[in-house]
């Protein structure tokens, strides 16, 4: 079936360093790419998104890059803090005609003090 | 702000049992969703509903039924629980029915299912 591939599945970084998560998607018509963060025991929440008319978006220590040609997008967390430890999901629009989001398999980020 | 309430928080069932999960939202959103979260598999869409009494199948609808009784509530039924099944079921809502920009999903805290 259609997939959004997300790597790595597990990521451990030292506090203060940066963390990067990469996703690839299949639907070339997808025009929206959100990122959701799920803290331990909590529900997923939207943290940043990017539309297909942009290549880069930055907000509060988060940077999202989009390469439409390669069908690849990525999340970069600069100056990581323990509060950034969480599960992160990328998503893109499915090509099934439903125009619903299809999520990646998630990245468990741990920021070590 | 609104809230999504899922009940129960924990559900323990027997193999073959029919199990029902409930979800209520007070965002006044038109669209509601049920996702299944498994370790290593992300969030997979089971059913969604764009208005009261509407049902749309997601990629994982086999083995499940759903019901949108009214705008604020959306229930999911596991038609026959599988032995040793463990998963988290997340309900969500959004203002619109398509996954484009501006249509943020708001998730509930989840129902954790274990089948003995």
Describe this structure in words.
The complex is a heterodimer of chains A (113) and B (116). In chain A, strands 2, 4, 5, 9, 10 and 11 form a six-stranded mixed sheet that branches. Chain A has a five-stranded antiparallel sheet with strand order 1-3-8-7-6, with no helix packed on it. Chain A is an all-beta fold and 113 residues long. Chain A is built from no helices and eleven strands. In chain A, 0% of the residues lie in helices and 54% in strands. Chain B is an all-beta fold. Chain B is 0% helix and 53% strand. Chain B is built from no helices and eleven strands. In chain B, the strands form two sheets. In chain B, strands 2, 4, 5, 6, 9, 10 and 11 form a seven-stranded mixed sheet that branches. A four-stranded antiparallel sheet of chain B has the order 1-3-8-7, with no helix packed on it. In chain B, strand 4 and strand 5 form a beta hairpin. Chain B is globular, with a radius of gyration of 13 Å. The chains are: A mainly beta (113), B mainly beta (116).
């Amino acid at each position: 079936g259609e997939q959004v591939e997300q790597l790595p599945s597990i990521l451990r970084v030292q506090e203060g360093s940066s963390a990067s998560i990469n996703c690839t998607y299949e639907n070339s018509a997808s025009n929206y790419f959100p990122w959701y963060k799920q803290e331990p025991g909590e529900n997923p929440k939207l943290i940043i998104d990017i539309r297909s008319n942009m290549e880069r978006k930055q907000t509060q220590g988060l940077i999202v890059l989009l390469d439409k040609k390669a069908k690849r997008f990525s999340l970069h967390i600069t100056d990581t803090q323990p509060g950034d430890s969480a599960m992160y999901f990328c998503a893109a629009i499915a090509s099934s005609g439903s125009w619903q989001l299809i999520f990646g398999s998630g990245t468990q980020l741990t920021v070590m003090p | 702000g609104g809230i999504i309430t899922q009940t129960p928080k924990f559900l323990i069932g027997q193999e073959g049992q029919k199990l029902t999960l409930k979800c209520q939202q007070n965002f006044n959103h038109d669209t509601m969703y049920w996702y299944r979260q498994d370790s290593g598999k992300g969030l997979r869409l089971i059913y969604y509903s764009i208005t009261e009494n509407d049902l749309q199948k997601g990629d994982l609808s086999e083995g499940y039924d759903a019901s949108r009784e009214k705008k604020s509530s959306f229930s999911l039924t596991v038609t026959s629980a599988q032995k040793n099944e463990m998963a988290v079921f997340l309900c969500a809502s959004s203002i619109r029915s398509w996954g484009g920009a501006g249509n943020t999903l708001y998730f509930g805290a989840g129902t954790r299912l274990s089948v003995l």
